């Protein structure tokens, strides 16, 4: 196998720039290398962490006691209106490539950092669009059964920012995703904020090139596009997802959004704005714990992001996130759910009033 051995700490391979070292840190560039290495490590019952772009994880400051595999597999194969994309491909670069070929439906998902392999885990979404709408199937290595599998969307159990991959983090290794796309540059506008900046109304359509430009601009104003000169973008993106509550539990004046039509709770539950809950619980943009300045704080541009503007630690991230969650729980009785994957660390338990 032509596996590349790497040096350094996990902070150098994650967008939040926190994390300690690892017993072994490697990069693989083919599916067979990935499968063989995972199979060998599992056979020896050794701890394993698989990373793509590292944009949706918080790694503990302590050394990871096993092997960290960075997946760098490449390949984009078009077959008519379907495309198979390798797990190591950069998500936003693929969106741009698809758009250049006339497939514009993914434009609202522009600018989301990370690799393709991570996208079905979170069922990424933005501006009224979810990836699950376009997935035909996901190719995986099933660590439990020791076989390659092709998983249908039903088997993937996609929900709002959730999937069977997220529910079973140690079972599946995503190898590739097959998407089914329509060749069109007309994109429905489903989200009010996007409609407003485009001077349109929700339900109309717009040119996908313009949608991508506007989405990238919107994300940039929130420091939600990775940018080496913008330290506010050193984050995992949204740290908490919009919580799902019953209609009767919506706080007064809190913005709410419908669930996807396929969600079985769509008639009785809604999503409420996590950003609104955080800000109205007293956590302002730029908020941090302790006296003086801090490298770990709530983004100055987006109250849902926790940023690391210098040499902050995972312990500080966990402490701040725990404080935010407790404040929201105290104010509204709603438990915020963490969006990034926490590696060898966890938030404090909520304390009931």
Describe the structure.
By secondary structure, this protein is α+β, with helices and mostly antiparallel strands. The chain folds into three domains: 4-71, Uridine Diphospho-n-acetylenolpyruvylglucosamine Reductase, domain 2 (2-Layer Sandwich), CATH 3.30.43; 76-186, Uridine Diphospho-n-acetylenolpyruvylglucosamine Reductase, domain 3, CATH 3.30.465; 231-343, Uridine Diphospho-n-acetylenolpyruvylglucosamine Reductase, domain 1 (Alpha-Beta Complex), CATH 3.90.78. The chain is built from nine helices and 20 strands. It has a five-stranded antiparallel sheet. A four-stranded mixed sheet has the order 1-2-5-3, covered by helices on one side. The longest helix has 19 residues, at 314-332. The N and C termini lie far apart (56 Å). The model has no long low-confidence stretch (mean pLDDT 95).
CATH third-level topology of the largest domain: Uridine Diphospho-n-acetylenolpyruvylglucosamine Reductase, domain 1
Estimated structural class? alpha+beta
CATH architecture label of the largest domain: Alpha-Beta Complex
Mean pLDDT: 95
Order of helices and strands: EEHEEEEEHHEEEEHHEEHEHEEEHEEHE
Give a short summary of the structure.
The chain is built from nine helices and 20 strands. By secondary structure, the protein is of the alpha+beta class.
